[in-house]
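Narrative of activities, Objective 1.

The group set out to show that a structural description can be obtained from nothing but a protein's sequence at a throughput compatible with the screening campaign. Below is one input-output pair from the validation batch, recorded exactly as produced.
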Amino acid sequence: MEAKDGTSNPSSSTKKKSRKPKYSKFTQQELPACKPILTPASVILIFVAIGIVFIPIGLASLFASERVVEIVHHYDKDCIPLKYADNMLAYIQSSKTNKTCIRRLTIPKQMKSPVYIYYQLDHFYQNHRRYVKSRSDKQLRSKSNENKTDDCAPERYTTKGVIVPCGLVAWSLFNDTYKFSVNNKQLGVSKKDITWKSDQKNKFGSDVYPKNFQSEGLIGGAKLNSSIPHCQLSENCTGE
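Output recorded for this entry:
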């Protein structure tokens, strides 16, 4: 209805829907809560209790770490002949130079087995996006995926065909080898069980053999035996 003056009647107009949410103690943060009043005495008591619990744990961890024997040895410069001191790259790339290097290490404490061996590379940025993407997990998983090298650029093909394993990750395979001896007694170095069980089962197929690897152009690292399955080279085969 309209009033005599032509204005609308407020009582007859349609009510607007309210956007106000339904009242709830949860949405309004009115649920019962514990709000303790901390006094200096209670704070000191809490810290003392935490200290009683964690100080023995810290001492035990410190004692365990003190028993660890770690030897770090940099051999990159010591193993370079003097005439190649100013051009180490030429020494590394040359196929005519003898790269056997014998180093003597002194162990300050008794090392209990197993002894773990790691190598460290400086200024080698493996987290570069192009480097990380340059590999093919499908190719490593099965021989039927040999030609799936879309992500392996620039190490995809040679004039002889597809590269297995392809990509920059495989191309830059670290090629230093180590032998250890104590009192002229040779020590064995095992590469077994250095990968996760899930990787052994799902990532490396027993029918994948190296093919055209490090055969042309710039050699990036170690060469692989084409008669041995790729997984056996690092003892990653699962026997399936």
